[in-house]
Amino acid sequence: MKKINIAIDGPAAAGKSTIAKLVAQQFNMIYVDTGAMYRAITLYYIEQESEDFDRLVKEIDLKIVLDNGQRVILNGKDVSERIRENDVTEKVSYVASKESVRTFLVEQQQKLADEKNVVMDGRDIGTTVLPDAELKIYMIASVEERAVRRLKDNELRGIESDLEFLKVDIERRDQYDMNRDISPLVKAEDAISIDTTGLTIEEVTNQITELAKDKMV
User: Fold this and answer.
1) What is the pLDDT of residue 70?
2) Would you say residue 119 lies in a domain?
3) In which residues is ATP bound (predicted)?
4) How would residue 68 be classed by pLDDT, with cut points 50, 70 and 90?
5) What is the pLDDT of residue 67?
6) Residues 22 and 205 sit within 8 Å (Cβ to Cβ)
7) Parallel, antiparallel, or unpaired: how do β-strands 192-195 and 5-9 relate?
8) Residue 35 in marked binding region
9) Is 205 inside any structural domain?
10) Is residue 211 part of a domain?
11) Which range of residues forms the domain containing residue 32?
């Protein structure tokens, strides 16, 4: 089967990362979590307490280690768990809206996909990062279901959360992501929509796997 790139976009907590990892495993492809990259820069922004994003990105040494899962190394430190905490989650949409941040990361993400055989998820993968991806998926789910998923994920990570707060936060992030000036969250014209509300992880993974097989022939 030929090598392809798979782009999976969608709003916060739609299940993109979970599904993307499983699809990548099915085909022995490389999984790239672009959201983690934005979270790493958000963490640095919080630590530096600076709005000078042009300066911040120049100070960042960001490495994605693709070995038995993805680890995020920020200036020599593994921040893979730290970037999932609430303070980062609350600010990541704001940081991701900055032009210098997006320019910096899009370039890195495109380099990771140069040789194809990558599954990449995010907000603007099919529209901006990998506009020529052979398969584009746009995943959605109800706010209620996404909030429940985020709550369960946080519980597994030992992060305290409140369901009602998560609902409000997800709606806020949707509005921010969809209405930002630079690379807003939109469905690519050639993307296939999948509403994951009420579907199991296995059901969604199987749908995308079958679509990918058709592209690999």
Assistant:
1) 81
2) yes
3) 10-18
4) low
5) 67
6) yes
7) unpaired
8) no
9) no
10) no
11) 5-196
| pLDDT tens per residue, range 93-115 | 999 999 999 999 999 999 989 98
**Residue 15 known to bind ligand:** yes
Instruction: Please check if 14 is assigned to a binding site.
Output: yes
The distance between the two most distant Cα atoms of the chain, rounded to a whole number of Å, is 50
- pLDDT above 90 (res 132): yes
**What residue type is assigned to position 204 of the chain?**
V
Which helix (H) or strand (E) segment holds residue 172: the answer is helix 163-179
Query: Which H or E run contains 69?
Result: none
The answer to whether the annotation marks 16 as part of a ligand binding site is yes
Is 128 a domain residue?
A: yes
Is there a binding annotation on residue 18? Answer: yes
Q: Where are the beta strands (DSSP E) in the chain?
A: 5-9, 30-33, 62-66, 70-74, 77-78, 118-122, 135-140, 192-195
Indicate the pTM of the whole model.
Answer: 0.90
10 is in an annotated binding site: yes
Residue 181 makes CB contacts below 8 A (sequence gap 6+) with 97
CATH number of the domain that residue 159 is part of: 3.40.50.300
The total domain count for the chain is 1
To the question of whether residue 12 is assigned a binding role by annotation, the answer is yes
* pLDDT reading at 163 higher than 90: yes
* C-alpha–C-alpha distance, residues 154 and 126, integer Å: 28
- Is 96 marked as a binding-site residue? no
Residue pair 130/4 in contact (Cβ under 8 Å)? The answer is no
Provide the edge-to-edge strand list for the sheet that holds 77-78: 62-66, 70-74, 77-78
Tell me if 112 sits within 8 A of 68, measured CB to CB: no
